[in-house]
């Protein structure tokens, strides 16, 4: 089945007991047993819940993986995946991963003696040279936030497989509609489903998909033992969001392409960051079907930043991304404020950089909001 149909029919459709077309919200903590251990597949909702199970099957099908898992946030999903490791293990991580990922590794897992290096994973030779005897995981994000750098999943997975290392991909920005890392050789793919998968800025959730039974058993053990699960109502809401993922992503991408084209003609726009725009076209076409709905651009002055952000009618100034509504932010002052200014300037996250999560509004209305000549 094509992913556009699978998004609508995947997981399971409806309810066998009543014929309801949508999956019910099984708001229960426990399940009756006929005799000890004799039950209908569910014992306790941390271990398994029918609503959550539909979501978990759905994301596994969309990512073409073996088994899916739902967590209470993207960070809960990421932390649970890191718990596959043990003290003394070493992990290689993309140097511009999501700030919360950096923080949980550098401030929490460090206390459990997890060893780590943050490196530029777009540089495959560098990745190869950075592998140590105790390296057990390579963790990448592609495209990255906010500079939209791409890493070849296939190239990383090839190096990792040779050495028995797990490849983990944070697929939040691309979603399975545009990129399916497991088909490129990754072992684990994860999401902040808070973003595009949920798609309506109305929930916080995380999803994980693994590519084989052994990893599935280990991940389920951690999910149940640690307990960072997603509740039935949010699972239901997330299923509802995912049902329209393909149609939303088409519009996000279409709008973003038109906005990139408009930005490229503005004299006050100095640099545009969009997957495949300046470089990495080969990587883009080898693993993504379209470039997505996230754009960053650098303008000529901080005064222009102020001007762009003034008088917004359609776009909202806010953190987060991936919802139907357009959101704009200044990473240096908001999401990435904890990085010292000299480092930010060096890597390109300047005070003049604006990040736009392109919504699915009528594109001319978004462009009018950005047009400083109208302000
Ligand atoms: C938001 C985000 C996360 C964290 O997810 P939460 O749902 O906020 O916990 C992880 N990775 C990326 C790429 C994100 O954008």
From TrEMBL:
SUPFAM superfamilies: PLP-dependent transferases
Co-factor requirement: pyridoxal 5'-phosphate
Pfam families, sorted: Cys_Met_Meta_PP (PF01053)
GO molecular function terms listed in the Swiss-Prot or TrEMBL record: transaminase activity
Keyword Transferase attached: yes
Residues passing through the membrane, by range: none
Family per record: Belongs to the trans-sulfuration enzymes family.
Protein name: Aminotransferase class I/II-fold pyridoxal phosphate-dependent enzyme
Gene source species: Defluviitalea saccharophila
């Amino acid at each position: 089945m094509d992913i556009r149909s699978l998004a609508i029919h995947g997981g399971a459709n409806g309810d066998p007991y009543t014929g309801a077309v949508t999956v019910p919200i099984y708001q229960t903590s426990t399940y009756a047993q006929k005799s000890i251990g004799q039950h209908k597949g569910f014992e306790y909702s941390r271990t398994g819940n029918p609503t959550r199970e539909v979501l978990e099957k759905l994301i596994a099908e969309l990512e073409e993986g073996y088994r899916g898992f739902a967590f209470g946030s993207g960070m809960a999903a990421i932390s649970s995946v890191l718990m596959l490791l043990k003290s003394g293990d070493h992990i290689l991580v993309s140097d511009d991963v999501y700030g919360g990922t950096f923080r949980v590794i550098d401030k929490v897992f460090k206390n459990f003696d997890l060893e780590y290096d943050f490196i530029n994973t777009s540089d495959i030779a560098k990745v190869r040279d950075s592998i140590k005897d105790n390296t057990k995981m390579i963790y990448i994000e592609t495209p990255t936030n906010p500079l939209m750098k791409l890493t070849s999943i296939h190239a990383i997975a090839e190096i990792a497989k040779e050495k028995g290392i797990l490849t983990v991909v944070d697929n939040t920005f691309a979603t399975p509609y545009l990129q399916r890392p497991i088909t490129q050789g990754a072992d684990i793919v994860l999401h902040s489903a808070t973003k595009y998968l949920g798609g309506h800025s109305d929930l916080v959730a995380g999803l994980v998909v693994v590519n084989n039974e052994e990893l599935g058993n280990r991940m389920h053990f951690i999910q149940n033992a640690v307990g960072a699960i997603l509740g039935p109502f949010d699972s239901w809401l997330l299923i509802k969001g995912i049902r329209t993922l393909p149609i939303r992503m088409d519009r996000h991408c279409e709008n973003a392409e038109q906005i990139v084209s408009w930005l490229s003609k503005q004299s006050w726009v100095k640099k545009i960051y969009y997957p495949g725009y300046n470089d990495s076209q080969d990587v883009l076409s080898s693993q993504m079907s379209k470039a997505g709905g996230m754009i960053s651009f650098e303008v000529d002055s901080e005064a222009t930043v102020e001007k762009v952000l003034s008088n917004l009618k359609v776009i909202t100034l806010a953190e987060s991304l991936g919802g139907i509504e357009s959101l704009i932010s200044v990473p240096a002052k908001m999401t990435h404020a904890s990085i010292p200014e000299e480092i930010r300037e060096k890597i390109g996250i300047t005070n003049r950089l604006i990040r736009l999560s392109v919504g699915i509004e009528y594109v001319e209305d978004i462009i009018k909001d950005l047009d400083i000549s109208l302000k």
